[in-house]
Amino acid sequence: MADKQFDVLVIGGGPGGYVAAIRAAQLGFKTACAESNPYADPKGEPRLGGTCLNVGCIPSKALLHTSHLFEEAEHAFPTQGIRLEGKVSIDVPVMIGRKNKVVDQLTSGIKGLFKKNKVTFLAGHGSFEGNGPAGYVVRVGAETVEARHVIIATGSKPRHLPGIPVDNRIVCDNVGALDFDSVPKKLGVIGAGVIGLEMGSVWRRLGAEVTVLEALPDFMPFADMDVAKEALKVFTKQGLDIRTGVTIGETKVGADGVSLAYTGKDGKEARLECERLIVSVGRVPNTEGLNASTVGLDVSDRGQIVVDGHCRTNLPNVYAVGDVVRGPMLAHKAMEEAVMVAEIIAGQAGHANLDTVPGVIYTSPEIAWVGKSEQQLKAEGVAYRAGKIPFMANGRALGSGDPTGFVKMLADADTDRILGVHIIGANASELISEAVVAMEFGGAAEDLARICHAHPTLSEVVHEAALAVDKRPLHF
Ligand code: FAD
Ligand code: NAI
To answer: Where in the numbering of this chain does the Pyridine nucleotide-disulphide oxidoreductase dimerisation domain appear (predicted)?
Structure first.
């Protein structure tokens, strides 16, 4: 007999796990959530919130915000007549301290949400022990738990490269990159993906000379080609030195920095000397330590738990959501799947549409998209119409002094259904929501063209892009 019995046990307390637990409890299930991460709160208990709240979305956005303000104070204020006496400087420990406070507030807030929703928090590592009379038996720390339904939300961890040991001081993954104690003079970044661009931007804005080394020949191949082209132009102008088609060679790590050999696109050998190095080359699912084979849980060669469209695993009543399964590694995707699974367990329909999960890169300008890119539509042979409007044609963008970028809308040539929206520009992260709503409801470009948008707002550029699909923009 297990020590504790629950209707639903969630393993992992990140966005996938804590949301699944809250929704399951709301639906009337006796629910527990096990979390084992090393980020302890003042009581010594593991913090909830997973990668996202502790070492991901939230702390990175806090640092992006501070560094953006810093850059604005240095470069944008004078252009609008605001003079600061003396040199603008950054107090890195204060910046990091504020970031940590935000993390504390949000992670402890989830413990509050658990109390409110009557979710039992179990501090400890969860691993399958076998089957019991009433469900699955899972060891959580020192005790055993039996649950009729198990939701696995164990997330992911950074991928490291052989020969480049991460100590999170000189060579950092996302954990160390969010916790520098000073601005390095020279920063190297391996991987021009989302973390590389966001964290590279943070430290560049604060004064680091940043070189980004990317293995693939093209920059941002996952984004719409026009957006990738514009982003490369803008980031390069800002001072990010982005080198694509690079092969990393021997890397020497010393007490004061890194000396890294690499071969460039042109086949020439070069060397990067930097005080600190961020390794951001993707993430791998957390499945080892789950003891999956004990219960026969299907895990792929890449370490992902194999699930169907409804996040069902090969085992009855065992589900998996978030970074540990296929699909984009994004917090909002994990939360969508979490709600879907809890509702399926409750006998409801459950719904998570991966086709309308938006992607956002929180650089400046921000980059956001949903649906298909132009190159994907071309490759699939889909006939489409495109509308593209620059922020330069928008009064609010000009008034704010930030008119970089554009909105591009792609719609089916026959039905006018929106197939993709791609934005590079200020507040793209917020603007994309309108496109997500439209696409989720099968909307057409004409629908957005017929909707009244407040003036003056950046959202008018989305409106104009919808009009431009039909070649009738009013302000461009
Ligand atoms: P996780 O958040 O990884 O949570 C899994 C939890 O399970 C962890 O706390 C882990 O300790 C725990 N765990 C693992 N194994 C066990 C076990 N056996 N027993 C008990 N507990 C266990 N996404 C966005 O959408 N927007 C962003 O802006 C964004 N920014 C990011 C910035 C960075 C620097 C990084 C690294 C990621 C970012 N992400 C962002 C991605 C986002 O953090 C993840 O997609 C999201 O956290 C996934 O949620 P999850 O619940 O699946 O996993
Ligand atoms: P990523 O997959 O976004 O980018 C990794 C990059 O590294 C790729 O461009 C890849 O080609 C490159 N790469 C791989 N091996 C390499 C090598 N040996 N040498 C040079 N380059 C190499 O992964 P990243 O940036 O580590 O982020 C992980 C995940 O976290 C993202 O996929 C994303 O899902 C999530 N995330 C989301 C954010 C957001 O939503 N704003 C912010 C940060 C992370």
So the answer is: 357-466
Q: What is the pLDDT of residues 455-476, one digit of tens each?
A: 999 999 999 999 999 999 999 9
Q: Is the CB of 55 under 6 A from ligand 2?
A: no
Pocket test of ligand 1: the residue of 154, 294, 324 to mutate, having most ligand atoms within 8 Å of its CB, is 154
Q: Are 342 and 20 in contact (CB under 8 A)?
A: yes
Burial class (CB in 10 A: 0-12, 13-18, 19+), 454: exposed
Residue % of the chain over a pLDDT of 90: 97
User: In the predicted model, what is the mean pLDDT of the chain?
Assistant: 97
- The secondary element (H helix, E strand) that includes residue 407 is strand 406-412
Residue to mutate (ligand 2; options 251, 281, 430; most atoms within 8 A of CB):
281
Q: How far apart are CA 362 and CA 59, in angstroms?
A: 12
Ligand nearest, relative to CA of residue 126? 1
Nearest CA to ligand 1 atom 33: 56
Per-residue model confidence (pLDDT) at position 156? 98
pLDDT, tens digit, for every residue of 377-393? Answer: 999 999 999 999 999 99
Which ligand is nearest to the Cα of residue 164, counting in written order? 2
Map out the domains of the chain with their CATH numbers.
Answer: 4-158+284-354 (3.50.50.60), 171-281 (3.50.50.60), 365-469 (3.30.390.30)
Taking the model in full, what pTM does it have?
A: 0.98
What is the DSSP code (8-state) at residue 47? P
Structure tokens given for 307: 């699930």
The binding site comprises 61, 126, 154-156, 191-198, 214, 282, 323, 329-332
